[in-house]
Amino acid sequence: MKPTLLVLAAGMGSRYGGLKQMDTVGPSGETIMDYSIFDAVRAGFGKVVFVIRKDFEQAFRDTFSNRFGSAINVEFVFQSIDKVPEGCDYNRERTKPWGTNHAVMMGADVIREPFAVINADDFYGKESFDIISQFLGEVTNKKNLYAMVGYRLSNTLSESGAVSRGICEKDDNGFLTSVVERTHIEWVGGKPAYKDENGIFGTLADNTPVSMNMWGFTPEYFEHSEYYFREFLSQNGQNPKSEYFIPYIISKLIESGKSKVKVLDTPAKWFGVTYAEDKPTVIMKINELVHKKVYPEKLWK
Fold this sequence. Notes:
Radius of gyration: 19 Å
Number of domains: 1
Number of strands: 13
CATH architecture: Alpha-Beta Complex
Distance between the termini: 26 Å
Strand content: 25-35%
CATH class: Alpha Beta
Order of helices and strands: EHEHEHEEHEEEEEEHHEEH
Number of helices: 7
CATH superfamily: Spore Coat Polysaccharide Biosynthesis Protein SpsA, Chain A
Shape: globular
CATH topology: Spore Coat Polysaccharide Biosynthesis Protein SpsA, Chain A
């Protein structure tokens, strides 16, 4: 059974100034998503499911419906504010969907196999897809054993300024125990350092594992998601800005003992586009990988 890749692509890109998911960065007009899907195909994935908004549908279908030929099957699912469990209420003044784990829930009707979750606008690297694919192959027919690809902190920092990262703690067996969000991490004296709420810097090891939103799940995760989404809406449904993030449910599952999450180390270097100013750097890094023959100049024939 081949795993599925679930791509979270419903964001509006307000800071970027457009649909950054569709912006081209490769030498033959490839998007960052193209490189993720190319790596997924090489790692043995059999299907890609795009989570998009209905108003993006035509643009996505025109671009991706036939792009990959027979290399991988393609499905589209739609995230919208009104997709909540029956009987749940929410603030009708809300203007955007419910966050990353709500987006994951949109795949429930089309995914019956182990699956990986990624962001559309992040470059994860070939090694990471190989690692998560191997894990998903090992948990076929198992339940409640999940994974998070843990990037080494120094491989995710920006030369341009501070970033926010989820700092992961794990036990002696490599299972995730907590994710602490550090909103200001930067290079200080050649070492990664974070600034706390009092403006005081603390140092972090180069290889500290951080979450870049690359997860591995089995299908019962959808059941957990709905259960905790009901709880979330009862507590936060009237807040028009509340968001149902993946770390929220992961914390619930770990604390309750319902599931375990293995932290999978990757040597890959992450990069992505948050602002329009990031694009030239991404193009440069892609071109370097093409020059090194990690990727062909044209991904899809």
